């Protein structure tokens, strides 16, 4: 896809590296603390920009230094930030722990992200109308996500939703508007109330989303790769092998890379998205880990 607009969150990430996650009630020492530009929406926009897609971002940050940093970082990837609004609430924050295996857990403080309203989407509708594709996640209010999806669908745009953090079942009205939805296994299980441990279980759960009107379900399976489920069948794409250092933003990078490479062929887009996400997993940080188009091409070679 040549151009995209992202509606979603921007967070300053406080990322703590540690050997292992603490048990409840336990105190442990960390190896390091780093502050990185993050937020699922901003990560997607940054990745789209780095991967050569003309990209705009619609979101909200505070009138603070974190907001300045996040906007500057998106602009460094060529992202149009004219849709990023400044608010009195502080910029969103994420507190992330990453263990020795690269697994993470994340706690977010929504801050300004939750001030993004359907009226803001209306105000910035020209950015949606100018793009081929709308990309979203669920770190801004659901009513705002719905408003953006309706506007994009009415304008004939492709609608892509990364349903993270998954709140449980999604409004059927939203599912009907999604051309692509990209849950991981845990999110797929939360969205459908069905198990999603094996390929067969993922396919059965994904089919219930197809029945509700989703075009294609892309299930990211971490070290097992990605599974695409369509009304005509499914494709499992194994990932390249890399040493996992930090999985933060790998899902955001996967979604963006898939969109940037989507021209109707599932296998090439999945292969490209797997490669981009594998590079992201092998580096620390959220936007800091996201590769450029040249790096992905080299890696695939
Ligand atoms: O998907 C990773 C992102 O989730 C982090 O950058 C953090 O900000 C949270 O939004």
From TrEMBL:
One Pfam assignment: PfkB
Positions of the catalytic residues: 252 (proton acceptor)
CDD domains, per the entry: ribokinase
Carbohydrate kinase PfkB domain boundaries: 1-292
Group of enzyme by EC: transferase
EC number(s) reported in the record: 2.7.1.15
UniProt keyword Transferase, yes or no: yes
The keyword Kinase appears for this protein: yes
InterPro entries: Carboh/pur_kinase_PfkB_CS, PfkB_dom, Ribo/fructo_kinase, Ribokinase, Ribokinase-like, Tagatose/fructose_Pkinase
Annotated residues for binding of ATP: 184, 220-225, 251-252, 274
GO molecular function: ATP binding; metal ion binding; ribokinase activity; tagatose-6-phosphate kinase activity
GO annotation, biological process: D-ribose catabolic process; lactose metabolic process
Region forming the signal peptide: none
Keyword annotations from UniProtKB, A to Z: ATP-binding, Carbohydrate metabolism, Cytoplasm, Kinase, Lactose metabolism, Magnesium, Metal-binding, Nucleotide-binding, Potassium, Transferase
Activity regulation summary: Activated by a monovalent cation that binds near, but not in, the active site. The most likely occupant of the site in vivo is potassium. Ion binding induces a conformational change that may alter substrate affinity.
Cell compartments where the protein resides: Cytoplasm
Subunit-level organization: Homodimer.
Function, as annotated: Catalyzes the phosphorylation of ribose at O-5 in a reaction requiring ATP and magnesium. The resulting D-ribose-5-phosphate can then be used either for sythesis of nucleotides, histidine, and tryptophan, or as a component of the pentose phosphate pathway.
Protein name, UniProt field: Ribokinase
Originating species: Candidatus Faecivivens stercoravium
Lineage: Bacteria, Bacillati, Bacillota, Clostridia, Eubacteriales
Gene transcribed to yield this protein: rbsK
């Amino acid at each position: 896809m040549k151009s995209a607009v992202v509606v979603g969150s921007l967070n300053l990430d406080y990322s703590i590296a540690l050997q292992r996650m603490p048990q409840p009630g336990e105190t442990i020492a960390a190896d390091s603390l780093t502050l990185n530009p993050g937020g699922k929406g901003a990560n997607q926009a940054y990745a789209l920009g780095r991967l050569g897609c003309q990209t705009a971002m619609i979101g909200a940050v505070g009138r603070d230094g974190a907001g300045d940093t996040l906007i500057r970082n998106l602009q460094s990837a060529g992202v149009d930030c004219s849709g990023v609004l400044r608010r009195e609430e502080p910029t969103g924050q994420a507190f992330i722990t990453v263990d020795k295996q690269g697994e993470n857990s994340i706690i977010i403080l929504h801050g300004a992200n939750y001030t993004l309203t359907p009226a803001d989407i209306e105000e910035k509708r020209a950015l949606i109308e100018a793009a081929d594709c709308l990309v979203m996640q669920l770190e801004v209010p659901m009513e705002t996500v719905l408003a953006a999806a309706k506007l994009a669908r009415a304008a004939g745009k492709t609608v892509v939703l990364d349903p993270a953090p998954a709140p449980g079942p999604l409004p059927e009205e939203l599912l009907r508007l999604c051309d692509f939805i990209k849950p991981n296994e845990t999110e797929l299980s939360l969205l459908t109330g069905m198990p999603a441990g094996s390929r067969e279980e993922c396919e059965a759960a994904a089919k219930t989303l197809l029945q509700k009107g989703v075009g294609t379900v892309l299930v990211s399976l971490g070290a097992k790769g990605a599974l695409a489920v369509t009304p005509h069948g499914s494709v499992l794409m194994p990932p390249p092998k890399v040493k996992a250092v930090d999985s933060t933003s790998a899902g955001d990078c996967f979604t963006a890379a898939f969109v940037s490479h989507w021209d109707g062929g599932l296998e090439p887009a999945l292969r490209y998205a797997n490669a981009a996400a594998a590079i992201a997993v092998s580096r620390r940080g959220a936007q800091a880990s996201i590769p450029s188009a040249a790096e992905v091409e080299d890696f695939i070679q």
